[in-house]
Amino acid sequence: MSRLSRRTRSALLLLPLAVLAAACAAPGSAPSSDDGSGQVVSIGVTDASENYWNVYKQKAAAQGITVNFVNFTDYNQPNPALSQGQLQLNEFQHLQYLANYNVKNPAANSDDDLVPIGATAVYPLPLYSAKHTSVDQIPQGGQVVIPNDPTNQARALLVLQAAGLVTLRGGGNSLSTPGEIESAKVEVVPVDAAQTAANIQSVDAAIVNNNYATAAKLTDQQRIFADDPNSESSKPYINAFVSRAEDKDNPVYLQLAALYHDPEVEAAIRADLGDTGVFKSNDVADLQATTTKIENDLRAAGS
């Protein structure tokens, strides 16, 4: 899953397809602008209407780079578009989502793989309750609903473990399933992610992705726990700029990834998306090593 926005980022859930036409370029290339003033870089995103991208675009223009945002509403589309050379970069997903894509869509050669080239932010996955004001108030045997899609389910289980409500075999990881719960204070009930918020009145607590929490008007006061964005278990959920492997050292693309952390851009992001996200500055080697580890874990698990 771009740094996921308060409305759409944490979930990385599939939405109906409505893709704007992308300006095509040869794979691995950044075309020149028509007036010869610099390079044009097409970046795939899922929230192009957010104002902070206008600030970002202006900052890029000041550095001689014309950014063309290509908006997608189906999260299945930006990675194939990047692989096929219709984009030079995309920014919509976390490392876990990227690794899963690479494993399920093996490249013909290593240069066709997609790789992270710059961290953006982590968006915590919250535990909400309409009945309790703290995790300690959840009774023994209480029910907690979590999303049942693999990416969010594993992360939700790690959140419950961090909250002291379950323990997972081997400490758990980004591939954990309910079958790996070794002990539990609560009954964990996986449901469709879209139904987590709808169940909150009838259960003791619910892990709710940010977009569904916003739609259900869940409040900060109902948020009783969230994962630590600085923990090791949160690393797979760092969002990133992504390029083709052959372009991972392209100085213009690295420049654009770093531009996300321009103070004025970060301020605009907070104005648009709120303060729930934590900006991350992990170096590129660390991001790529984390992605490779997740890919290896997925292959070992037969994903």
List the helices and strands and how they pair.
Blueprint: E1 39-45, H1 51-62, E2 65-71, H2 78-83, E3 89-94, H3 95-104, E4 114-119, E5 121-122, E6 126-128, E7 143-147, H4 150-162, E8 166-168, E9 181-184, E10 187-191, E11 205-207, H5 210-215, E12 223-226, E13 239-244, H6 251-259, H7 263-273, E14 278-279, H8 284-300
Parallel strand pairs: 1-2, 1-3, 7-10, 7-11
Antiparallel strand pairs: 3-13, 4-13, 5-14, 6-11, 6-12, 8-9
Helix pairs in contact: 1-7, 3-8
InterPro entries: Lipoprotein_NlpA (IPR004872)
Keywords: Lipoprotein, Membrane, Palmitate, Signal
Pfam family, one: Lipoprotein_9
How would you describe this structure to a colleague?
The protein has 303 residues and is α/β, with parallel strands linked by helices. Helices cover 28% and strands 21% of the residues. It has eight helices and 14 strands. It has helices at 51-62, 78-83, 95-104, 150-162, 210-215, 251-259, 263-273, 284-300, and strands at residues 39-45, 65-71, 89-94, 114-119, 121-122, 126-128, 143-147, 166-168, 181-184, 187-191, 205-207, 223-226, 239-244, 278-279. The protein has a five-stranded mixed sheet. Strands 10-7-11-6-12 form a five-stranded mixed sheet, with helices on one face. A two-stranded antiparallel ribbon has the order 5-14. Strand 1, helix 1 and strand 2 form a beta-alpha-beta unit. Helix 1 (51-62) runs antiparallel to helix 7 and helix 3 (95-104) packs across helix 8. The longest helix has 17 residues, at 284-300. It is globular, with a radius of gyration of 20 Å. The two termini are 18 Å apart.
